């Protein structure tokens, strides 16, 4: 036994002594580390697209694009982490070093979200947004390198802690390990959106993204500390060389060798990889052939992840335009993602213990590749469901003017009704203290207004294209134009303003909003307010002139509250409310079917795919197929960007249908490919090959021995012949 082997055995012996209930105590540190790391990753990722949209002020397309580039990088870097661990540093050091990089990245992300690190406007918007963008991009690069780099190492490092005879304990460990991943994901997607919803800041109050990113950063630091604490108990295997590099070198040599002999008359070989026979072991070539058969089946798979990972981008943005009031709780848009881990923990045991056994009893051959096909179909149906939900949302969205149009609404603040004429439209009546229900769209930048009063002739007004405006008609036919909102309030907030129709100024205030003094025939600024019941205090210039006005707010509405000339101070009587933008009326519960379908697809597709890959991979190339599997996720996220850029669809529901159609087409292609695939037993093939190679080697040895005997006999007889 070598000195290195003795050290490894000594270390295993020492580790074996520190056990609890038959399990190595070291796995406790690994499990806690994984829970904290997954909390950190999924917690940050849950609020990321909203951070892009509402803090960095990017539009939906840019926010979605950068989100998917980040996710893709997280699934590209595992290949780098596996190479570093297996070739140079070993799993333990790789986890330590890349976790430090990971933690630094999370801290940088938290710092990038502090709006007070630069000068801000009155509304709290940073003036130097480029600094925040640069910091956040640096943070995301470090996080992608860290989380991806340790991904292939942690679970394998946990498996290294067990002795060969502890197969049952090892299986339990991986089950607990997978449970910790989903538990961390579930808890973080509940907590971080709540933290994001808080108000924080030094000079101005804004949504608390620093806290939403800061808690995951703290959990990553905890993960690193816990992992280091168990250092003395770990079994730390030395790097043994990276099989992925050997595979790449072998394939490269085969291609190069075949190209080198392309113009010469050489005997044809059964497989193009056989051109590597001159340099590489035949068993390695046989194993690579098995791997390439599976990798070929992987080619259509990225399309599944193209749809699946949009639940963290497009679906979260969709939820921002919906009503999250479930009565007993208010869900934030990014909290809808918690349905995924909840459903996973529910559906995995149901499918394993009930669904699959029932299908088997029915005599149906529900093979792994058929399961994966069904999973892809489920994902496509999830996007059909998302498209139907989007159509319902679009019905409630305001029809806003284009850049060449303007929209005008008339508000009558007189005590008598009016007949209003704004050519080329027909005259329309407006009752006292009322506004016409719909905005009128004009293609010109001037309008003329006529009333059924003694007003001499039509009154012209200049209007602004691309804007919504309200024409307020007060006592004495005094008229003024005020600008209205041209977009739904974001993040589920509500916009509310007051218009004073009294002859005297009034003061209006509420919790978190001070409108100040509002002069007669003046519209105040809009104040953004969250969902809930709000109480407004209206005060007049005289003692005793004060009352409270209560308004229940939903999500995403815009209102003008009119204090008319008939207003009474007793209970704020005769106040008029005008709804400018309808609040979100489509409930978030309508997203449940699409989350159920996508999660059912994940359970049938992803879990089965991992099992299939493991069963079809040679014993020493499980990591190669694992890297190939993760690569399909990365490619899938890049496809989101390509399809979205090429399609450039104005309607979101149409984009959802496009993705669903593409996946159905890919699903058909995959089912055809799967039909021609022959399942193999890699262990049996390897054993059979080794047996043949052993017999062949034995035969060669006998031939060599016979050859040597023949040579020796000739040498012995030569002198006798000479003597004769």
From TrEMBL:
Pfam families documented for this protein: PTR2
Annotated segments matching region Disordered: 693-724
Main location: membrane
Gene Ontology, cellular component aspect: membrane
BP GO terms, sorted: oligopeptide transport; protein transport
The entry's keywords: Membrane, Peptide transport, Protein transport, Symport, Transmembrane, Transmembrane helix, Transport
Subcellular location(s) of the protein: Membrane
Domain of life: Eukaryota
Skewed-composition ranges (Acidic residues): 714-724
InterPro entries noted in UniProt: MFS_trans_sf, POT_fam, PTR2_symporter_CS
Biased composition (Basic and acidic residues): 693-713
GO molecular function, one term: symporter activity
Entries under PROSITE patterns matching the protein: PTR2_1, PTR2_2
UniProt membrane topology term: Multi-pass membrane protein
Membrane-crossing residue ranges in chain numbering: 21-42, 62-83, 95-117, 129-150, 171-191, 211-235, 290-308, 374-393, 626-644, 656-680
Family: Belongs to the major facilitator superfamily. Proton-dependent oligopeptide transporter (POT/PTR) (TC 2.A.17) family.
Protein name, as recorded: Solute carrier family 15 member 1
Organism name: Alosa alosa
């Amino acid at each position: 036994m070598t000195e290195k082997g003795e050290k490894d055995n000594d270390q295993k012996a020492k580790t074996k002594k520190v056990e609890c209930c038959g399990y190595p105590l070291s796995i406790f540190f690994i499990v806690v580390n994984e829970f904290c790391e997954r909390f950190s990753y999924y917690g940050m990722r849950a609020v990321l697209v909203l951070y892009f949209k509402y803090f960095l002020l990017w539009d939906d397309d840019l926010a979605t694009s950068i989100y998917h580039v980040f996710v893709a990088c997280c699934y590209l870097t595992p290949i780098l982490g596996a190479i570093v661990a297996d070739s140079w540093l070993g799993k333990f050091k790789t986890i330590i070093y890349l976790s430090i990089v990971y933690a630094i990245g999370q801290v940088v992300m938290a710092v990038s979200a502090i709006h007070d690190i630069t000068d801000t406007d009155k509304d709290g918007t940073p003036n130097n947004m480029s600094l925040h963008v640069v910091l956040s991009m640096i943070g995301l690069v470090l996080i992608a390198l860290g989380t991806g780099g340790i991904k292939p190492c942690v679970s394998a490092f946990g498996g290294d802690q067990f002795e060969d005879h502890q197969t049952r304990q090892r299986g339990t460990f991986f089950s607990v390990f997978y449970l910790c991943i989903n538990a961390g994901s579930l808890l973080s997607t509940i907590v971080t959106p709540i933290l994001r919803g808080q108000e924080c800041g030094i000079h101005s109050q804004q949504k608390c993204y620093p806290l939403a990113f800061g808690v995951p950063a703290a959990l990553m630091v905890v993960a690193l500390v816990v992992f280091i604490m168990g250092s003395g108990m770990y079994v730390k295997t030395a790097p043994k060389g990276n099989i992925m590099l050997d595979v790449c070198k072998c394939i490269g040599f085969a291609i190069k060798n075949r190209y080198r002999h392309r113009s010469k008359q050489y005997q044809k070989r059964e497989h193009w990889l056989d051109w590597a026979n001159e340099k590489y072991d035949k068993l390695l070539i046989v194993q690579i052939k098995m791997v390439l058969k599976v990798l070929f089946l992987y080619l259509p798979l990225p399309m599944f992840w193209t749809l699946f990972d949009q639940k963290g981008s497009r679906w979260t943005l969709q939820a921002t335009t919906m009503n999250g009031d479930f009565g007993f709780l208010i869900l934030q848009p990014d909290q809808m993602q918690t349905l995924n881990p909840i459903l996973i923990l529910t559906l995995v045991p149901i499918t394993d213990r009930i669904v699959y056994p029932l299908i088997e009893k029915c005599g149906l051959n529900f093979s792994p590749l058929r399961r994966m096909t069904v999973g892809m179909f489920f994902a496509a149906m999830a996007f059909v469901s998302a498209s139907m939900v989007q159509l319902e949302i679009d019905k409630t969205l305001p029809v806003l003017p284009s850049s060449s149009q303007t929209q005008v609404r008339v508000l009558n603040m007189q005590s008598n009704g009016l007949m209003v004429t704004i050519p080329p439209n027909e005259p329309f009546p407006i009752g006292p203290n009322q506004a016409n229900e719909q905005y009128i769209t004009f293609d010109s930048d001037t309008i003329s207004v006529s009333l059924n009063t003694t007003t001499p002739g039509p009154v012209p007004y200049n209007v602004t294209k691309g804007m919504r405006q309200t024409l307020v008609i007060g006592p004495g036919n005094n008229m003024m134009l005020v600008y209205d909102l041209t977009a739904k309030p974001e993040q589920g907030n509500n916009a509310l303003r007051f218009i004073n129709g009294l002859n005297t100024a009034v003061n209006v205030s509420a919790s978190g909003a001070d409108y100040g003094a509002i002069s007669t025939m003046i519209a105040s600024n809009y104040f953004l307010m969250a969902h809930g019941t709000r109480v407004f205090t209206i005060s007049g210039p005289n003692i005793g002139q004060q009352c409270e006005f209560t308004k229940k707010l939903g999500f995403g509405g815009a209102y003008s509250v009119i204090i008319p000339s008939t207003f009474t101070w007793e209970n704020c009587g005769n106040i008029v409310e005008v709804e400018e933008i309808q609040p979100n009326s489509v409930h978030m519960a309508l997203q449940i079917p699409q989350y159920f379908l996508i999660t059912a697809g994940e359970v049938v597709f992803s879990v089965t795919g991992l099992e299939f890959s493991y069963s079809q991979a040679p014993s020493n190339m499980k990591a190669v197929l694992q890297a190939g599997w993760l690569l399909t996720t990365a490619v899938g996220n890049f496809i989101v960007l390509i399809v979205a850029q090429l399609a450039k669809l104005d309607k979101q529901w149409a984009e959802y249908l496009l993705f669903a159609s593409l996946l159905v087409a890919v699903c058909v292609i995959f089912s055809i490919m799967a039909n021609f695939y022959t399942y193999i037993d890699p262990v049996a093939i390897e054993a059979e090959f080794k047996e043949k190679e052993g017999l062949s080697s034995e035969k060669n040895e006998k031939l060599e021995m016979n050859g040597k005997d023949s040579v020796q006999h000739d040498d012995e007889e030569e002198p006798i012949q000479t003597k004769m």
